[in-house]
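Quarterly update from the structural biology core.
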Amino acid sequence: DTMEVVNGPECTQFQDWLSFIARGHRVIGVGNSDTHGRNSPPGLPRNYLASPTDDPAELTEDGILDATLSGDVVVSSIAYLEIGGPARPWQVHQAAQYEAPVRVLTPPWAQATQLLVMRNGVLWETYDIGGGEGAVTDFDGPVALTPEDGADSWFVLFARHSERATAVYPGERIFAFSNPIFLDADGDGAFTNPDYEALEPTTAPFCQ
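Predicted structure, tokenized:
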């Protein structure tokens, strides 16, 4: 049901994950939260799940499992990506175009400087973002998700900084990415996967 996208050679694994989605294989992308050595920081990257409760005491193993399998998962390394509105990651939303409310947050000692939109597995739009030194909010606004040629399309959002962290987690990548949002653009009530195209490594954020 899931694939640990961020563990080891991120470029290859991220590209493999996009290829699975592009071929119609619904594999939920997750990060990892273990550590492989005493010099590795624990809990990085993290998986953020949509929770039915804001009270940690009410969380259950079944609830966490259900939240993971819903696919509404954001993978985070220092940065945090929040998508609002009715079109949630992993759900099929009927719309010829969708304005996704997006927020990108980082702690005061880090910053995200780019928000990338991948359409059907290929880099489509790049936004320069960033709230400046000490800011927590690096982006807060709508992002237009426009299907390709009016056909059903899927979108992955990816926030990042090209440089690595210098504090708290020195040397670690600063990024966050969503699972795909699927848009039923033709309005037939189902998602038809676009024709598969070979994905060039240079189009994947981890490969740049």
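The chain has a mean pLDDT of 90.
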